[in-house]
Amino acid sequence: MGGAISCRETFSGFGAGGRARAGADQLLGSLSESFTEVARSPKLVYARLAIAKQSLLPSPAFRDSAVWTGSSGAVRLLEVQGAFQGGRYMLSAHPSVPAPKNPADSRHVVTLSRLSDGEYRWDTTVDFGVGAIRPNDVATVLSRLISSAEGKKAEEVRGRPVAPDRLEVELALLACRWLGAAVLQPAAA
């Protein structure tokens, strides 16, 4: 019985009734679609490889105009649009990417700014369409979902032994460590 109450509280951020169902379906559907047969445009493939190779010493990437979709003075810009089309998630680099309109649509913006000779700063922004659910409600659901296991043994939360799925459990724990304060809230006193 405690588990059912915990689940109800965890997912109450979706709302109630039809609104809750639609919000959950859109959020989870958009996340699923964004990992379905991901395809990248040739420009994005080139840009990703150049950025990955030169991320710690970015001056060659900064000078390579083929990496960027725009530039202005000491700033380089890579804009990427993501959308679920034809059974796959297509990511393409081009200028002036619009804000997401539909669930699973995304806009990724990477900037490289030259601050001085030999000093650069990377910035990344990702906007992702998740449907009608509000951002604060998504944060509430994620925070409650992650904290619902607090103080419990893994077997209690899962209802089965951990050993057969150890890799999945370790990945979930790693995600919690990475996301940290973005999704976890202190327990109520």
Can you offer a commentary on this structure?
It is built from seven helices and six strands. By secondary structure, the chain is α+β, with helices and mostly antiparallel strands. It has two domains: 2-33 and 132-182, no CATH class; 38-128, no CATH class. Strands 1, 2, 3, 4, 5 and 6 form a six-stranded mixed sheet that branches. It is globular and about 55 Å long.
Which descriptors apply to this entry?
single chain, 189 residues, alpha+beta, 6-stranded mixed β-sheet, disordered N terminus
Please provide the count of β strands.
6
- Cα(first) to Cα(last) distance is 23 Å
The overall average pLDDT, rounded, is: 85
Strand content: 15-25%
Q: Which parts are unreliable, with pLDDT below 50 for 5 consecutive residues or more?
A: 1-5
Work out the helicity level: 40-55%
SSE ordering = HHEHHEEEEEHHH
The main β sheet shows up as: 6 strands, mixed
What's the tally of helices? 7
Give the helix/strand class. Answer: alpha+beta
Radius of gyration: 20 Å
Q: Assign an overall shape.
A: globular
Q: Give the count of structural domains.
A: 2
